[in-house]
Here is the input.
Amino acid sequence: MGVPLHTALVYYVFPVFAFSIISFIFYQVLSTPLGWFIVPALAGVAAWVRYARNTEKKIKNGERYNAIVVGAGFSGLCMGAKLSEGGVPFTIFEASTEVGGTWHHNTYPGCACDVWTTLYQFTFFQNPDWSRFVAPAKEIKEYLMSFTKEYDLYRHIQFDTRVKSAVWKEEEGMWKVVTSKGSLKCKILISACGALHKPSLPNIDGIQSFKGQSFHSANWDHEATLEGKRVGIVGSAASAVQIVPTIASKVKELFVFQRTPNWFFPKLDPVYSDTVKHLFRRIPILMTIQRVTLFLLVEGWAAIWLTKGKLSQWFQMLLEGNMRAQLENQASLTSHLIPKYNLGCKRVLLSDDFLPVFKKNKNCHLVTDAIEHVTANGIKTEKEELKLDMIVYATGFDIEGSICGFDTYGRNNTLLRDHFETQPCAYLGITVPTFPNFFYVLGPNTVLAHSSLIFMIECQVEYIMQTIQKMAELHIGTIEPRQDKTSQFQSKMGEWTKNKNFSTTCRSWYKNKDGVNFVLWPSNLLQYWWMTAKPNLLDDFKIGFEPEYYNL
Here is the structure.
């Protein structure tokens, strides 16, 4: 079966065109006199010296900075691995019974990564045995369990332990963390809850009145049988586009309730052959080469389709052509499944099998009429009541509730959630004024619309580790970001958002209730790496020194 034209254009023609331009520029550069490179080369060496990572992993005096990490998903496990290497004592609290975070909870049919898995793994723990380009959820969870064993993290994790609150104790210079099983104090508190862990049910009347089976996609009931059932899927975004094609042939009738259509990238998802896996195991650098290549490819795409302008519009036309081809240009479907908003306003999804479901399966129905309420026997839209045996709410997550995953009280008893009401920002997405020694992994403005969050996680974890190292070296008791630096960062986020397609008035989970971009990083990933490469404690933070070392 040949590669579809639009897929070929997106994945092959565009990269070849870009590579040709780069090659031409490179050729021209090589013909330039060598002297022109001396100053830039020296500047590059200076930058490398300044930003090179410390090869000494153990932190001197690190044992004095005990840490609590909340969450055992990608963020928490990465943090735990680096704390362990640094000799910093730590405990990870996890509300569930196993590691994995979202990959432990989300087990719905068809659940898989929505970026290429070679990007969705730690750079220092690459897996040569992924089955395919876009790995299923089961493999990702197994990868995380393997990582946890490799870094001996299980002994640091307290499972079935939900963090209820954390309170800063000014007189002690410590955090008191209250859990479902007791309390513990720590010098460093790290929230690694993630931004997608609190399921969000839609604000629809009558949800509790439904007599059949109903659940959120993140809480899939595997005891529920699909065969012979009339099933309703409320929502049509990331989770729904994986569920629908998987269960379409199993159910008697499937009704997909869509509020807003989505843009789709062609899903390039080849299976890795045994030969390729063998090569990855024997020559690990091949995995790195693949990763860097795809990373740069994705960054190049994002620079086009996330930014307002003609190039974004042309790219949108290319994707629209692919989507119309999947729907065979059937007007009754394209009118409802081709978005009216610009590409990039909402997250672009990766799928080749969602749209064709409505063309090929007569038992699958797209419902775009507004839902009025849920009844005892189904869902009542503005036009009719549809009788259902089961309702699945594929309605995403409460982003703001996830970021503030537990009640956190900083100085002057300031509640973090209230703080974000008036100042929806964390400095570099990591630290927050008036909350000393508190760090986020995947905090505000660090979620991505185009690439893998693992890149952001590693940048932030490295930043936190360098900060703890500096605190230990200089006997610093407390740090918190300066308010002016945080405000400047917030202004920068607003400025950078203005030229992005998601800054328009269309509705998305990227924005808080006031329309402020509270979630997404609005620039390229290398920019974030550069900004977080080396913490500047003297310029960016308010510092409190340990009194036993400094007679101030």
Notes: The first helix runs from residue 5 to 30. The mean pLDDT is 88. The two ends are 75 Å apart (CA to CA).
